[in-house]
Design brief:
CATH topology: Alpha-Beta Plaits
Helix content: 25-40%
Shape: globular
Distance between the termini: 93 Å
CATH class: Alpha Beta
Structural class: alpha+beta
Strand content: 5-15%
Number of domains: 1
Largest sheet: 3 strands, mixed
Radius of gyration: 24 Å
Number of helices: 8
Strand order of the largest sheet: 8-1-9
């Protein structure tokens, strides 16, 4: 005799529930960190809204025109981004002047160093949350809402270009949100770029001071001043051996 009553689905066992949970969370319980890295890679794969993928923003710094002891670019960066002058080595600083000397000849040079906005940024590779990311136009940024302050990116950066905010911040500028417990670095004045402006605060200040040591522009545009000068005079990448393809280039080193 047939039974026409609908069949009831079996209740899931405890082992079944664990299996469903593991699948839903992508293996977090079995391999902590793997899922976070996958999320970070997915977040950085898509071009950023508003960023032109045909553009590669960068800086060209002519060290032969950069005066030793001059801090015009550093001061302009601090003013533009609402930062106080650093009093301790741990205070945030997005541009620092490095004085170098060639051992054989004794020739000295003053070199501004900031985030190099690499095409292959190691800070993005190690970030577990996707807070460190590269825009479609080559600018490398930190999303302070996603940053958990682990500082892996600071350890991964070969240029020591990132800072950690240890203290509470006040009187912040609306265009440059910052926060305690987050990592930060040079943004190539992305707020200016997104408004349609074509110069960073450091390049603008250097030009106004009459030095002309910093040029900002599109490395992908063969007609831009930065591309023309790189093409005609060549340029040097800091730690070119790492093959990170920095967007900041130097001349005179």
């Amino acid at each position: 005799m047939s039974d026409d009553r609908p069949m009831r689905k079996p209740e899931p066992t405890r082992r079944g529930w664990l299996g469903v949970a593991a699948a839903a969370f992508g293996g977090v319980a079995l391999a902590p960190g793997i899922r976070l890295i996958e999320v970070a890679q997915a977040a950085t794969a898509a071009p950023s809204a508003g960023a032109n993928p045909k553009v590669r923003w960068g800086l060209l710094i002519d060290t032969t025109k950069c005066a030793e002891g001059c801090t015009d670019c550093v001061n302009a960066c601090q003013t533009e981004n609402g930062m106080a002058a650093p009093k301790r080595s741990t205070d945030p600083q997005w541009i620092r002047k490095v004085e170098i000397r060639e051992i054989k000849t004794g020739r000295r040079a003053s070199v501004p160093v900031m985030c190099q906005h690499c095409a292959e940024p190691p800070c993005v590779d190690v970030c577990p949350t996707g807070a460190s990311f590269k825009r479609a136009d080559g600018i490398v940024l930190v999303d302070r809402h996603s940053c958990i302050g682990c500082r892996y990116c600071m350890m991964a950066c070969p240029y020591k270009a990132r800072s950690f905010v240890h203290e509470p911040l006040a009187d912040q500028l609306p265009d440059v949100p910052r926060g305690k417990g987050c990592v930060e670095s040079c943004t190539l004045c992305v707020h200016r770029i997104d408004r349609g402006e074509k110069v960073t605060a450091c390049a603008e200040a250097c030009t106004k001071a009459g030095h002309g040591a910093i040029v900002f522009g599109d490395l992908n545009d063969p007609q831009s001043e930065i591309s023309r000068r790189v093409r005609e005079a060549g340029s040097t990448q800091l730690r070119a051996d790492l093959r990170l393809d920095p967007g900041v280039r130097y001349q005179g080193l």
